[in-house]
Write a structure and sequence with these properties.
By secondary structure, the protein is α/β, with parallel strands linked by helices. It is built from 8 helices and 8 strands; from the N terminus they run βαβαβαβαββαβαβαα. It has a single domain, classed as TIM Barrel (Alpha-Beta Barrel), CATH 3.20.20.70. The protein binds D-xylitol-5-phosphate (DX5) and zinc ion. D-xylitol-5-phosphate (DX5) binds next to strand 2, strand 8 and helix 7.
Amino acid sequence: MSDFEIAPSVLAADFGYLMRDIKAVEGKTNYLHLDVMDGHFVDNLSIGVPVVECIRKYTDMFFDVHLMLTNPEKFIKPFADAGASMITFHIECTKDPEGLIKLIRSYGLKVGISIHPHTPIEEVLPFADKVDLILVMTVVPGFGGSSYLNGSDERIAAVRKAIDEKGAKTFLSVDGGINKKTIKEAYDSGARYFVAGSAVFGAEDAGKAVEELRSCITMS
Ligand code: DX5
Ligand code: ZN
């Protein structure tokens, strides 16, 4: 039993063959990361409710929905109805994080809070024991294939410390630039839930890529 999880990010999948790509990782991990972008909070658009609803018909994987959008409160019910297992919102996108946490939990879902690399890490620390997952963005959100940012390790370590000091079981996630080189560095800094897009779906064999990422931690 390992103490960490890997969540392939479908942003890097071939959307023309989305279920084929999801099936390629289904037996290798239970977690699937789904990026939702609005063109406001981030400079890009991606998938939305109808796609989540459609893929839910064909898999029981845990759907980790990463909302990169303003007004997240408007989209909790639609994504809950579509089959999300967890909804992660950005701390920068709400004035009422407590209310949003309650709203997400009211649908029986797990809750995550994400933080942009330009936001002081202190803003998320008070939530270390209030949510199921804290997502430290390790790239500027909006695009796949960016490089793991310098300074990420210190930010991950600060969240790790806050979680441990509170004796919480909160998952500490990283997203952006995670590959065979950076995954161990992020693990050593305290991350335990690794989102990986291009490192998984950019590989010849996505399922094997998940196993290889896992072994970068377990074999070292
Ligand atoms: C980017 C998204 C990520 C993205 C990561 O803003 O939130 O989930 O898919 O892509 P890679 O792993 O290619 O950096
Ligand atoms: Zn993401």
